[in-house]
Amino acid sequence: MLYIFDSTEKLITTLPEGSFFDAIHRDVLNGENTFQFTIPVGNEYVVEGNLVAFRDLDSYWQVFEIKRLVDVHGDGMTRTAYCEHIFYELLDDIVTDKRPSADATAALAGMLEGTRWQVGIVDDLGASSTSAYYESVLSAVQNVANAWHGELNWRCVIQGGVITRYVDLLAQRGTDTGKQFVYSKDILSIEREVDSSGVVTALYGRGKGIELDSGSYGRRLTFANVVAVDKPAGQEWIGDDDALSRWGRNGRHRFDVFVDEEETDPEVLLQKTRDELARRKVPRVTYRLDVVSLEQLTGYEHEKVRKGDLVRVIDREFTPELVVSARVIDIERDPLDPANTKVVLGSFAPTIVEATINTARRVNEMANRPFNTKWLDGKISVLQNAIENTQSFVFQTGEDGILILDAPTYDQATKAMKLGGGIFAIANQKDGQGGWNWRTFGDGSGFTADLITAGIIDAGLVQIGPETTFAPGYDPTLIDPSASATMGVDSDCLGLWHFDGSLNSHKGVAAIGDANFDAGCFGQAVEVTTPFDGDVSTGKESGMSASSMYSSAYSPDNLVDGSIVFGAGTAFASASGAAFPQWHQIDLGGVFSINKVRWINNRNTANLPKDYTIAISKTGAFAGEEVVVIAKTGNATYSTWVEHAFTAIKGRYVRMTVSAVVSGAYYELSEWQIYSTRLGVLKAPTTGLSPNQSTINFRAKNLAESGNGSVLVDLPKSDNSQGIKAGIANDGKLYITDSDKVSRSYTETSQADFQSGTLTDVVATSAGDLELKKDVFSDNCSSVTGWTMGGEGMAASDGNSFYAANYGSGSSFHGPTLTKTLGASMGDITCIFDVTWLNNITGAIGVLLISLLDSSGNEIAFIQMRDNWAGELHTILRAGAGSADIFNTGSGNTTYNNYSGTLKLVRKGSTWTFYAGDTLLGTLTGGTTTEVTQIKLTFQQYSTYPPVTTMKVNDINIIGPYKPSGTREKTIDLSGANPAGGTKIEWSKTTPTGTAVKVETALSTNGGSTYGAWQEPTSGGSIPGITAGTDLSNARLKIRQTLSTTDTSKTPQLHDLSFSILESAGTAVYGPDKSTLTGWDSISLAWKSDRLSLVVNDSEACYIENPGLPTALGNYLFIGTDRNGNNAINTLIDELRIDKVYREVNIRTGWHKTGVPFYTSEDMKQWPGYMRAETDGLKVYDSSDALRVLVGSWIKDQIRKYGIKIIDGEIYSSIIRSGAEDATTYIQLIPPSILQVVKDGKQLLRIDTTAEHGLIDIFNAEGLDCGRLGGANDRDLALTNVSGKIFIVGQTGVDCMYGINVTGGVKNCIEDTIYGKLGISARESPEVRYIDEGMGTLVNGECRIDIDPIFMECIEPHTPDSRWYIQLTPYADVDLYVSEIGDGYFIIKERKGGTSTGAEFTWSLSATRKDYALIRFMEVLD
Question: Which end of the chain is more exposed for a tag (fewer CB within 10 A), N or C?
């Protein structure tokens, strides 16, 4: 089926098979991809510019654009559509100037930037470089494939009607499937083409133009000065003698020129020229096959062939006989006709027919394989650094040749190289006897050395004897911290984050942040951005559509965030004109992960948006790459926020497009808000990080787009003040800043701190604040000591409460009182009393009275609980001030008969309020303002009536107002401090309206004998009176804090105070401009006592000598933002590494030059190991040196075995089979789900798990099916054979149909007993009978037994052919018999006319099973 999309990529129709014909799909490796098909004329959708798609044989989508149409009128009217794959659209996009290097993923992404294509799967292809200068993107992508020696795969995914485009760059397309094309089987014709037109026998090599002093480029680089075995000095070309003798022109070379535009190394250019000559010195041989695509036929699925596959072609009738192996480079396939398939094979390596392996092809395959060369890149980088930084001193004599040393004298030298006639030698040390220990040699016969490091060894033969082995290569478990550019981590590394989908460190420490990941420099990276949280004030709304215009009174800036001002002409945006759609958009100033949009119209109902969309774009183009997150239809609600939340989408521009309003001709909007996900903080614990020396290293993407003022690293001090920081300055330059170098510091933050010194009318709170004092009276009622006793009787305390122990006597109310002064005269006051009042006895009378008194003992206010009537059970709750009531329940109220809780009385000015618990009961305004100085408690009963059951006061708290002012003063010893860098004093405070905090200082330089005047500093400023030259050798500093308030219900608070005497102030130094940082750049910040250093990529950007370092670090290190989560770089972070030691500059620049990820021992478990070829086989070891695969032989039981061992590994194969290739007896596993046992070519057993629950089929010797074991439910049947027994286990039991026979055994029930498992045998008989049993009781010598009707359903009736056998067992001295057997019953009677009553007996009835009458000794067929 073909799927047709219009030019906007919307699916518009399909063409089923039969509606089109002559369909040909041609696909060339790294080349063209076209499709053509023919239909009858008349289809309106098959037109130029539309897209056509179909699924190929692997169900992948192939998508093409219809480019050309040809209509033909012959036997009928037909239309043929000629289509090109949609990757040809990249011809229309231009790369102006890009020069990627090192990483293929980044190179490919750079070339695809701004297109609709994105990077897909990229194999590890090592490092390389290329360029594109004003050429098409398609050409630039091909440049990347050529430079990294990869093969392109253009891949499309269609989901939800959306076409997503991917470009894969693979080491090699296709696989070695073992497919054979055989003439007379699936080859219809073979064509062999040998083309020698491009053969050359010698090549000149030309590299990049040499840059001149003027900045222009001169002649191209050559390898003329390189001396090699195949060319002398001065020769600018290389040739091949064998090719010359075969293809030369009478002994003359056939020349051409090889040009590499990017190559700058003559030796590398020479090697590349050699490689090109090796390719071009032989003719190009191509085979074209017309074949039948057998894979489309049932049963031949294994015959599939794909582009890039390695296949075999066999034609015994060809002359000479043809047996070749080659890769498929071109397939032309007819989706409708398997016979109409053409395959082109290239890069042939003819084999020796059915004999030996083609060594040349094997070596070629090895050369084209992607190798993990990260370890080699690191070693090369180290050697590059070494050669660039090594001095050379040359000494030459006729006898000794040329000697090159690394020092000016022999004694100082540690390394040497000697050049002689036809030989050289290299030594890394002396031999201890005055000579050099030469260990590496090279001459005309080859090279000899202790170690040769290489990515690929290309050899005709690798010979390994019993005394030689390969060196194990790199040892992944060895991490050498001494190497200047090792990418491994040692014990000094605290954390290593790859951010590949996780914030967990590969060293075991977790970073803290919001995990949003994207493509990184080596894998994935973490996004660090500042969130948008509704406030769009930094963005500017702009751009109505061309079909509308702003109303003259309103501009886009009138659309604001925050407080909405209502009314005409303010705080809304509008468009005029009836043309729709109308839109506006906002530029957020950077790319954010947006997840919510809100809007509101508070001005005009008619002009309320009804139908609209909201779209998000990264570029603002809104042409193909925007994401529409909301498509809304229907009226919104006037003056109500409309909110749209959705899955976070990255974008910079947000556009609202309105296509209809409620009733107006234009729309109006009062406010909108945009929200983004919180991705603003990436921090790591500083545990183990040293303030004296450490290193922080990471990679950041495209810092050129980060805002000025962004922070790269923020490492605060323990008090969260400025420590060490790196970032981007306001002028765009990178900077680092150190801490102030503190000579003396002082901090007050706790209650203990503020309690020191002299405090007057201020207090230090448990929260660590200094505030004004309150007058407080508090008593927990644990003792009456200090209280004045009065009245009658006696008051007491039970340790928790005050109560009346004795009420005394009297004819009216009488009882004890307790009175106590408050210690202060209180105006505004809050009184809280915890009381218990239990009134549950009718006839009891009592009073609990709490009185507030003035200094003369006059009652100012009161709270009273009272029961004054013996005739009923009630409680009067009353509160008053002066002569007026605040609250009074009145008599007859029972609400408070059983009350336990607080009663609160509050006065503020002349207003009194009364509460029970938290419930406000009454308010009195204009009450008395007389100050309270005493409290009085009264407990009373009436006459001889019993008192109320319980009257207690449990707790008393009386709180007065804040003092109007108070001070704290303290003296600090400054002796010996050095103020050369200045001073700094700061504090934080809270000052409600009407309150104030003032800080003052006074300085003494003579040990405190005399002080200067009090002076008021500014928080964050310097200490008055102390300058850089002030002598503080015997200094003292007084600090006074004055707190004041004009509203005594409020207090100011001083939260903390600190000052520093600075030996030197923090400084900032600057590095490169951010505009130079447009890729994945390395940022490395390191510090030690004498240096704070910032490395950017491969150089030290700036440094501070003898920096100020924090004495203690904060809890977290912040990456990409400041410590408050602000000033984010708004980009990606990758490969974060934190070390607790200072890493030297050459190490950190080496990390960047190596261009590979860091690794830990945990990472290396996933690295490939190594392979060794030894005399007993080919062995593969993992990265921990454990043997995992052996292909060869081994000794077992003193006998050498041959085969393949896989230890804790996996095998993948189409078929796994035992025995010889042509064996007829074998066991065969056919993935994914079939196991077969075959004997003499006949299948005996087949286990097939294709079905949901699996099947087992058993066959006889003739291969005929004997039976099947399986089920339709989980655990329907389990079979186990143990010691010759078969156990059948059913989940709920085992049911057997049609009988079960036992031969030579018994039918047992297994019982667990104290004697073990015992078999209880079933009772057996010659007849098939059922037994039922029961008990009966005689009544007057008789008993009728009615048989269970269910049992009757299972047995034959009592007849001469099926008699019932009844046995009786009496439990008394009676004689019984069966007197009658009826239909479903039988009757038992006592003999001799007995009339016993109550005598019990048991009965047993044996009856013939239904349908088994007259059957005895049933015959069993063997």
Answer: C
